[in-house]
Design brief:
There is one protein chain. The longest helix is centred in the first third of the chain and has 25 residues. With 480 residues, this protein is α/β, with parallel strands linked by helices. Strands 17-18-21-20-19-22 form a six-stranded antiparallel β-sheet, sandwiched between helices. Helix 7 links the parallel strand 9 and strand 10. Helices cover 30% and strands 26% of the residues. It has three domains: 222 residues, FAD/NAD(P)-binding domain (3-Layer(bba) Sandwich), CATH 3.50.50; 110 residues, 3-Layer(bba) Sandwich (FAD/NAD(P)-binding domain), CATH 3.50.50.60; 127 residues, FAD/NAD-linked reductase, C-terminal dimerisation domain (Enolase-like, domain 1), CATH 3.30.390.30. It binds flavin-adenine dinucleotide (FAD) and nicotinamide-adenine-dinucleotide. The site of nicotinamide-adenine-dinucleotide (NAD) has 25 residues, from helix 6, strand 11 and strand 17.
Amino acid sequence: MENHFDVIVIGAGPAGYVAAIRCAQLGMKTACIDNWIDDESRPVLGGTCLNAGCIPSKALLEISEYYAGLKDSSSHPGIIFKGLELDLQQIQDEKKRIVSELTGGIQILFRANGITSIAGQAQLHPDRHVVVTSVASNQKKEMTANNIIIATGSRPIDIEAVVMDHQHIVDSQGALQFKEVPEQLGIIGAGVIGLEMGSIWQRFGSEVTILEAQDRFLPAADRDIAALALAEYQRQGLDIHIDARVTKTRRHNNGVTVNYQESGHSKQLEVDKLIVAVGRRPNTEGLTPEEVGLQIDEGGYIHVNEHLMTNLPEVYAIGDVVPGPMLAHKGSAEGVAVAEHINGSPHQINYDTIPAIIYTEPEIAWTGQTEEKLKQAGIKYRAGSFPFSASGRARAMRKTSGMVKILAEEKTDEILGVHIIGTNASELIAEAVLAMEYHAAAEDLALTIHGHPTLSEALHEAALAVNGQAIHIVNKILKK
Ligand code: FAD
Ligand code: NAD
């Protein structure tokens, strides 16, 4: 039974490859099928995250941040640079190198765990039969499994007003591959991708205009954090327009003309390149013939229960293809949970503490509830905050913008939400996630000794501030 497996995983992004590794670790005969092809027509593992998402974007964010720091003499007083130059080709090569090291690493892990890795397009048929069309030969073969895990991920949403030509009008994947820094860059959507891409290219020298259809900036974030973020991005030069809806775009020799309605007024923008970043949708088209009866909702998401089981027996779905935040770490957590479930040792995922992170400078990171959500739910809380301008380490780093804000239940003091805007917020949030996993009270964080001088002291001080005991700011207690 060469082509029969305990588990077949469809998709090798952070949801699928993690599920495959955990299944193999648990002793299951595992295959993983993926159709991703790199720009040299080679099959590669890692899906969107490693090839066109998390990793290449963070590589460019890191390099561009370093470049912007070198350009800005006020960020390194006393250090004088002359003749600073940008070689975008070398930067893109370095990004590619980082990506291929990591995708190669997954290949090594697959081999070491005895996972059968197949480069092909998979289609799910009745009774867990999978037909795979080989990427290399286009030939079909049939495989079967006791369990199937669908982890086919997502792809960018298109909008009617914009026809993508993948040259001047691109999605996030194209935006990571520019060969020249655009002078004028337009971005549709001030979500996570719009802000991260806008930051990258603004730091490399583009004039960036972002058009956001909603009348509120970063509605998922805590209001205080979103307001600080907007002011900070605008100070950096990102021209962000809220309540701005694109009505038409026209490609011409010099770039793109974008027509949009801003707060009821017709406006026009000329750009060299336009990035469309208005969200992503699940990859379910063509995944299974209709007669199989896989339950898929109107948005294309696969319906799953609390164990990530679909309506088909022993068929699971995880990652971006199921409802929930489209985040790599959420998909990976689901991958492990499903592997454990198949192995007979199920555990529940705590969706309430999944951290959300925006890797701009300052970074934004949060977990748990926002103040607005607590108010809507009628939950009484106390809030404590601490600005990085009062942190010795932040001052020494010359990165003083932002703050930490902690929300705790009024009577029990249990931490209900932590919101950070500031340098290294992506790392700082891990302490908050752990605290919330253990249902810690603000007092628990306040009694925990933090190293000095560190940025994490801001979390400590914010926890102290919840109960009016912060040391390095004047306390005010917010009773709601
Ligand atoms: P994917 O990574 O999309 O992988 C699915 C794989 O399945 C792909 O290789 C796909 O080609 C393959 N596939 C699809 N259909 C089939 C089929 N029928 N047969 C075989 N193979 C198939 N998230 C974060 O947490 N942090 C970040 O910093 C971050 N940055 C991002 C930056 C950008 C620019 C983008 C676009 C996304 C970013 N994300 C980030 C989101 C993250 O990439 C996704 O949440 C994550 O990749 C989802 O993992 P997944 O395994 O569900 O799907
Ligand atoms: P998003 O949902 O974060 O933002 C899309 C934005 O586009 C929204 O603000 C929306 O109001 C706006 N929009 C929608 N239609 C519009 C229109 N016609 N005109 C103008 N604006 C419009 O989606 P995204 O930024 O495309 O990111 C997709 C997914 O990828 C997200 O779910 C995100 O979680 C994930 N991602 C995560 C990270 C990270 O974790 N750091 C980074 C990048 C992407």
